[in-house]
Amino acid sequence: MSSPIVGLFASVLLASLVAGCGGAEPRFEVGPVDYATWHPVLYDLAVGSEQPTADWQVAEDGASVTQVVNADPSIFLSDTVLKDQAIEGTWLVHGDSDDDFIGFVFGYQDPGHTYVFDWKSAAQSGVPEGVAVKHLAAPYDGPPTGQLPKGMPPIGAANGTWDELAVPDGDPVTVIQRGEVEGWRHDHEYRFRLAQRGSDAVIDVWEGERLLYSTRIEDAEVGRFGFYNHSQGGVTYKGFAIHKVEGGGCGCMGCG
Questions:
Q1: Which CATH number does the domain housing residue 129 bear?
Q2: Local structure of residue 15 (DSSP, 8 states)
Q3: Fewest C-beta in 10 Å: which of 92, 94, 140, 196?
């Protein structure tokens, strides 16, 4: 369980992030996430994949979760619909193995309909390093969580492969934007914050005090949040808390 000191630090940190924004200062209600209520969504790519399914392991103290397998795409999905709320915490990829995708989903409706933020460590087979925001919109009538039917839907992929630039006409994955951001590095801790204000989603990513990436996605559907992982093991997500944001202010670092 998180200590009162950690909760106080989170409150002070978030207040400092909005310093200098116009309007009244937002109010924050701090609450650590409870991973006991989260569920895995496990995709099984239809073509060209022999990778296993993901394995999301919650730490004994409940303060972090690690995806330990180099696996097909997966989501560790919360039961919270973010609306005028923000979620913040840190990533860390352990060791020196592999260079694939870490990230999160937001505006999640079902396994066929969600927004995806992903981050690639190194360029590979036509996929550049750096970050991207995508929208998945695919017909879906299967189970809401757990192991999904093979090939349904191809989240973060095209025709069942992981090459995200080879998107044919009619593919359900739309790349909304790509950021000119360096790839993530092993054993470096990064912090991100997703704030959902009405129909706008604001994403900020830092390494230490350095802001690496900041963007606003307009007219984004309100939905559930989850951690996202594709073909990358040893990824730990920790220190996450959800904050209710009310009042004025722009609610993001680096926004105008």
A1: 2.60.120.200
A2: H
A3: 94
How do residues 21-78 score in pLDDT, each as one tens digit?
333 334 445 589 999 999 999 988 766 567 889 999 999 999 999 999 999 889 999 9
Asked if residue 47 belongs to a domain, the reply is yes
Structure tokens at 207: 């390494």
CA 54 to chain centre: 16
> In this structure, is residue 8 part of a structural domain?
no
Determine, yes or no, domain membership for 73: yes
pTM given for the model: 0.81
For residues 102, 108, 111 and 116, what is the CA-based torsion angle, rounded to 10 degrees? -30
Give residues with Cβ within 8 angstroms of 110, minimum separation 6.
Answer: 140, 144
Domain of 183?
38-244
Contacts with 5 (C-beta within 8 Å, 6 or more apart), sequence order: none
Strand 39-42 relative to strand 146-147: parallel, antiparallel, unpaired? parallel
Q: Number of structural domains, the chain?
A: 1
Token pair belonging to 33: 């996430």
